[in-house]
Structure formats: C-alpha cells, structure tokens
Specification:
CATH architecture of the largest domain in chain A: Roll
Distance between the termini of chain A: 70 Å
Structural class of chain A: alpha+beta
CATH superfamily of the largest domain in chain A: DNA Polymerase III, subunit A, domain 2
Number of strands of chain A: 29
Oligomer: homodimer
Helix content of chain A: 10-25%
Largest sheet of chain A: 9 strands, antiparallel
Chain lengths: ~375, ~375
Amino acid sequence: MKFVIQKDRLVQSVQDVMKAVSSRTTIPILTGIKIVATEEGVTLTGSDSDISIESFIPTEENGKEIVEIKQTGSIVLQARFFSEIVKKLPKESVEIEVLGHHMTVIRSGKAEFNLNGLDAEEYPHLPQVEEHNSFRVPTDLLKTMIRQTVFSVSTSETRPILTGVNWKLENRELICIATDSHRLALRKAKIETDTDSSYNVVIPGKSLNELSKILADTSDEIEIVITESQVLFKAENLLFFSRLLDGNYPDTTRLIPAESKTDMVLNTKEFLQAIDRASLLAKEGRNNVVKFSTLEEGIVEVSSNTPEIGKVIEEVQTQEITGEELKISFSAKYMMDALKALEGTEIKISFTGAMRPFLIRTPEDDSILQLILPVRTY
Amino acid sequence: MKFVIQKDRLVQSVQDVMKAVSSRTTIPILTGIKIVATEEGVTLTGSDSDISIESFIPTEENGKEIVEIKQTGSIVLQARFFSEIVKKLPKESVEIEVLGHHMTVIRSGKAEFNLNGLDAEEYPHLPQVEEHNSFRVPTDLLKTMIRQTVFSVSTSETRPILTGVNWKLENRELICIATDSHRLALRKAKIETDTDSSYNVVIPGKSLNELSKILADTSDEIEIVITESQVLFKAENLLFFSRLLDGNYPDTTRLIPAESKTDMVLNTKEFLQAIDRASLLAKEGRNNVVKFSTLEEGIVEVSSNTPEIGKVIEEVQTQEITGEELKISFSAKYMMDALKALEGTEIKISFTGAMRPFLIRTPEDDSILQLILPVRTY
C-alpha cells in the first residue's frame, strides 16, 4: 500500500472514525484504525464492536485530486498514535507507505514516522446490512430529534433497554422516545420512505450521541437502514453502524396523561433561569428537587430550602394559567433538561395533580413532548 | 449591613477573590467570602491562609454610582453558593442585606435568596504589611516574567523551596529564577524603585499562577511590597497577599555554563513542532526523551524510537551552527516548555557537550535564559 493524501482530509476522516475507537476494548486490533487503499480512494474504519464508523476519501472531488494511489493495499495502525501524528504533520500532503512486516512509513516534509502496523485481514468484518428497506431524514432534523430525546435515556444498567432510544416508524412517521422511568422525552416527524415498512427498534443512546457529533449541520438527507440487529446511517462518504439493543421497549403511551387539571404558558428562558437559581441551594444527589406552587394573579413560585445553607424563592409571572391551584415538587435538573430540549420562546406545562406525571410542550406543536414524574415532598 | 450593587462588578470581584478560596481548608470560615460595607464602598476578601485576595468596589467610579450603601456592616457568606448565586441573578442590580443571626438576604428582581452567614469578626485578619519599601513593575511585564519562569518550579514537595520562584532585587534589577533541579528558567528586568533596598525571597509558584490569572493585561504599574514573610501586590482596587517560602534558595549562578562548544540558531516554531512530533512516540513517564544530533550541512536531527510502537526522525535546518559535532538526549517536554516561554522567531541553543546542561536563549537578548540538563541515553 502506498498513497499520497491531503492532510486536512485525512485528519478529518481520522477524527470521525476515532469516535468509534475505544482504548478499553477486549479485542486488541480494535484499538487500531483500518486503512484500505483501492483505485477509488482510501477508506478508514474504526470500531468498538458496538459502533463502527467507515469514512471514505475519494481520489478526486470536484475535479481536485485528494489522494494519489501509488499501490493499493491495507494496514491497521494504532489509532492513538496515528491520530496524534497526522494532526501534527508539517506539510499539506502526507505519504503513507507499507513496507515489509506491516511496518508503515508516514512522511510529510522532513518528518518521517515508522509505525508498527497490524495485518488488516485480522480486523473484524463490519456487519452486513442489506439495503432494500431504507428511509431518509434531513441530517439537521435527525440531529435535532436526537438532541431532543437522547438526554432522557437511563444511565443505569439495571434495565439495559432503557439506555437506548426507542425508534418507531409507522405510517411514514418516525417517533423517538427515551425514558429513564423518572421522565420521558418524545419527538416525532413525518419522513420520506419508499416502503410502507414499520420498525420498532431501540438504538443505544451512546451511539446516537456519537453519531450526532460526527454529522455536519446540513439539510442534506441521510439514509437510514434498519435490520434485525443493526442500524446503518449513510451520509456522504460516511457509514455509521450501530448495534441495536435486544428486548422489548416498554409501552409508554399509557404513561402520557390525556387530560390535565392545571395548564400554564411560561416564557421558556425566564422560567429556565428561575429554576436554575432555585436549584442552587437544593441538596445535591437528589437531582436538586424544587417546590413549585401557584400563587395569586397568575404568579407561580419556585422555591427550595436547605436549612443548613439557606433558602431561595423565585416568582415567575405566567403568560396564561387555567385550572386548579397546585403545589408540586420535581427535579430541577429534569425540568432544565426538558426546557433546553424544547424550541421556542414559550412553553406550556400541563399538570394532572401533585402525584401525577406532567407534560411540558411547545404550544401549538404536538411533535415534541417532555414528561416528568413529580417527587413527593409536600 | 445593607447595600445595592451593580451585578457585573460584584461578579467580577467575587470571581477574583474566589481564586484564593479553597474548599479543602482546615479553617471552616475560610470557605467563605468576607464582605465589608463601609461608607467608601464594599470590600470582598478570600483566603486560603497562604494566599489572600482583597477586592474593593468603590461607591462611585468616574462619576457613576456602583454601590449604594444603606447601612455599613459585615458578613461572611459561603463562597461556593454566593459565587454561583450572584452569577445567575436576573437583574443588573443586587440588594444584599444582613438580618438578625447573620441571616443574609440577596434580592434581584423576583429572586430572593436567604443565606446563613457567619460572623465577620471571626474571619482571620490579613497579614499586616508595612509599606515603606516598595517597587513598581508594569503589570504586563510582571505577567510575562511570571509566565517565563513559573513553569520550571518543582511539583514535588521533596525540596519545598524549589516549589517557589526565587525573586532577587539588586541594583534596581529584578531577577526571577525557577528550577526543579532538571531545568532552570531565569528572567530579569530593570525596574523602578525609590530605594536601593535589595531582596532575596522565594514566592510559591501557585501564588504567582493565581496572581497572573487575576491581573488584567495592562501596562499600568503594580506596586510590590516585600516583608520578611509576605509579599503584597497592589493593583487598582485589588490587594494580593502571598506568604513567602522559608529557607535559602540554592545559588544557581554556578549552574549556568559560561562557555559553549556547539552553538546554533533555529526557527523557534519549526523546531518546537519537530520536537513535538518527535516526542509523540517517545515513552511516557520519562518526560518523553528525544535524541538530538548534528548532521552535515547545518541540519540537526531529532529522533525517538520505542521498539513496540515505532520510531520517528525529524530533520531541522539550522539558521546558523558553529562548533563541535554533538549527540545529546533531553526531555522533549522541558524543551517545549522552554521554547514556548521564549519570545521571538529565532532561538539560540548553546551546548557544552553531551553531559552538561545547555542554554536556550533569544539571540541578542540576555534578559531571559532557559537551561536544561540532558538525559544520558547515548
């Protein structure tokens, strides 16, 4: 294998596939990046066996040469060293050549690195994903849907299925749901698909987080292929594979109250800041529980009291309030997460009494919904 | 105590004095910030008993009211909570009032905090520093002198005196020296002083680092007062006290070779980047030792070899080279630290053989000097 490549493109691709490489793997070769040079270009692969990322650098793009292939071939290089090296090379172009015994030379200007490589034949094969069933989502919408749900996955391995986000595709609508059993985030969107296939899968939250970091903020569509055990995201020159979680995701529809007893509309930013301050003195380790109650004249009060430190009272003027008086306690952290996930300057909260889950939504928009279970303190 | 104060000024002052507050203190009241309101303004104090910082906010500045004192007095508030609270307050002005039993109310807009305070009388008194002997240094020069020396202090407590920077004032010249016994940094500058006093003190490296963070990048002069056990830096509305280290600093003058056998001038950035790359594959934990040798035609080679990973060879063209051929090994980390501390596009290195300390300087500038002891590997 021997090729000359533009440094900035190599750096970008290495950075992308590094997202899948873990230093804590039980399969030593997975601490490496696989490099394959063909007549068409150079393909880099990183994997931790849960997530695999493949980045392709074509020999030519828009008539400009990016890679000059001198000899096809393949090698696996230590990801940690290789990524540091390419970032710091002195010139705009880099030559990579495999000599005998997998010894690889990296040259740029007057810098010459010799790295001990590994046989690419020993690198695990990527999952085979058949592509007859796929659908497409604009990349920026996908990133938004991930951002608005993934924070609600469980971080505990007690119920592994809850560490993933439930993706359902039904009637050409994609529904993403995450819950850690104390709160729930739901986001749905109409999508384009050639088939009427329906899916119900659970994608690890970690995979979605990594995917989100790699994808550019573009409205270009990304193709999504779902199989029994894998999901594949196909962007330009990029393949992102993730395993799916085994097991059935709980049915969350019955958790969402259909009726409400107290409804209010609040300014998102003002309410978020009040909650943030009210939680400052709240005890740690309990997700900063704050008290919330309705007062006269459309005012709501957020408060917390930790006798050894002090107390805080925040008053917030609602834009609109209807229904019963209310005293309730909830996690300030969950409320702040939910408010940050919602878009728009106003939010609507619907309560069904102090002991029932409540809903936070954007008014006049049923594509997104955040649900929080209250904490019993009153 | 009761006053109304501009939030941004309070936030800035709290941030400054927080630099001295440690959560790991054996004196509980030092986890607090002391607030004193007088007719002239508000003074905040933070201290970890090694460093003490006092920030003064005057009632008026340039004809603009900053503080309105309603009642003089004092209180100590938990630094961690107080600093978080003031940063997040909703309005541009803040009212702080002490009620009975040191209970303190902080109001801003519709936010109201009640914090349990402590009696300011129980806060330790700051060191008394007599000011008849002082000298002045432009603030930006002081920050540069700190930056160019403090990184060389020892991080080990084996010889506590080496964790400080030796400051000597003689013949109206300030000399700052730091060494961890493997390398040494020296910077000197002519300064203005009213007296012909001379000093020889050792200031903890940590104190100088914290001081540097607080000081603005300005050419305004800062006044420095040195006593037997304390140093006081006086900037506008800011007092920074540090204890001095006990003991005699070693005489470092005889460490610095007066002659050299091999001299060279190199482009600073090019050499720094070559060292950086050469150290990438060098073994960790040994400060990344690299080999350095002179080749033909004014070229020097920097290399390292770690059999299990690979090797790297870097060639750098010198601007000028005179004297004997040389093979030497040294810590890449120390070399990079030294190169970063030097200003200018070119540096001069003077070697006196493979086993002797060598000097790195800016050509034609004797105000700064970096010295490194080689490592025996050849």
